Amino acid sequence: MVRLLLVFLLLLAGCQQTTEPVALDELAAKARAGNSQALEQLVAMLGEGGERTNDRVYALLLEIGDVAVPALLSAVSSNDRIQREFAIAALGNFKAKTAVAPIGVVLENPQLGRRYVAAWALGEIGGSAAVPPLVRALADSDEEVRKFATRSLIRLNRQALPPLLEFLRQPQSPVATTAAVRALGDIADPAALEVLLPLLKSPARAEVVTALGKLKDPRSVEALVAVLRDPDWQVRMNAATALGPIGTEQQAPALEKLLEDDVNVVREWAARSLEMMTGRRYTYRNEAGENVQPYNIYH
Question: Which residues pair with 291 in a beta bridge?
Answer without folding.
Answer: 285
